[in-house]
Design a protein that fits this description.
globular, 8 strands, alpha/beta, binds zinc ion, 12 helices, Alkaline Phosphatase, subunit A, eight-stranded mixed β-sheet
Length: 288
């Protein structure tokens, strides 16, 4: 394992729900492409099985595959894990790093469940406000916490909603991508003068593979996702193929100086960073 880059005070993880990898060059997302130009990126990363939001978000928060964390349908319900879980916000909490989440409004009946789930995984502050990426970013800004140190999780539903309603690659889908991209520009601007911010942007799944208005299949359009890492000490360029959504929680923990649990199924994307010393080369060996 290599030591993490120095000077990362916050990691902003943005989950752009249902943005399939080929949509980025196809429709153009200038703010996302700007992050890609100054970051490390892949348009060939893959999500978990099944390629549905609850399974993917469960994996991002727990570091393990859906078969382990137990969320494997496209509905949020109380998970039934098959092994003890060590969720990312709790891992960060042990290292003294707070976590905040900015998610869309949920129906009143589910609000208590969502807040209870956030508490259970160790999220210290959650806002569940707004129905779109722009509104979620506005709520994050209004919370006064957008520049706080620690882990910031965003989930934006616009593209998935448009995909289900009108199809992936429809005009409505293209319009949703523009909205998401504008929100990303606004979010990046919130920490523009905070150079110690690491951005991780990815989709939870693609869409329109097997079914033009759905995303739960093994088709590459459903499974392939964009993945962007941008921030301090990131080596700009295209990442090797083969990264998984499961590598993202490991990267968040590692970048913020927390220990990546052995039971997690992903590994930090160290390839994205430059000049990292290898912890396996002890200074003591040289002294002897
Ligand atoms: Zn969906």
């Amino acid at each position: 394992m290599v030591t993490p880059p120095e000077g990362i005070a916050r990691v902003v993880l943005v989950v752009i729900d249902g943005v399939r990898a080929d949509a980025v060059p196809l429709f153009g997302m200038p703010h996302l492409e700007h992050l890609m130009a100054r970051g490390a990126w892949s348009l060939a990363a893959r999500t978990v099985t099944p390629s549905v939001t609850a399974a993917a978000m469960g994996s991002l928060l727990s570091g393990v595959r859906p078969t382990t964390h137990g969320l494997s349908t496209d509905r949020f319900c109380w998970p039934r894990p098959t092994a003890p879980l060590d969720p990312l916000p709790r891992v960060l909490g042990r290292a003294g790093v707070p976590s905040q989440a900015h998610l869309a409004r949920v129906p009143r009946a589910y609000r208590k469940l969502a807040e209870g789930f956030a508490r259970m995984v160790g999220i210290t502050h959650a806002t569940l406000q707004g129905d779109s990426a722009r509104e979620i970013v506005a709520a994050a800004e209004a919370s006064g916490r957008a520049r706080d140190d620690g882990f910031h999780l965003h989930h934006w539903p616009d593209a998935d909603r448009a995909g289900h309603a009108a199809g992936w690659t429809s005009r409505a889908y293209a319009a949703a991508l523009r909205e998401i991209d504008a929100a990303l520009g606004a979010l990046v601007q919130l920490t523009e003068d905070e150079p110690e911010t690491l951005f991780l942007v990815l989709a939870d799944h693609g869409g329109g593979g097997q079914d033009f208005r759905n995303h739960d299949s093994a088709h590459p359009h459903d499974r392939r996702i964009p993945l962007v890492v941008a921030g301090p000490q990131v080596q700009p360029g295209r990442l090797a193929d083969g990264y998984s959504l499961l590598d993202v929680p490991a990267t968040v923990a590692w970048a913020l100086g927390a220990e990546v649990p052995e039971g997690w199924h992903g590994r930090p994307i160290t390839e994205a960073f430059v000049n990292l010393p290898d912890m396996a080369t002890p200074a003591l060996a040289i002294a002897c």
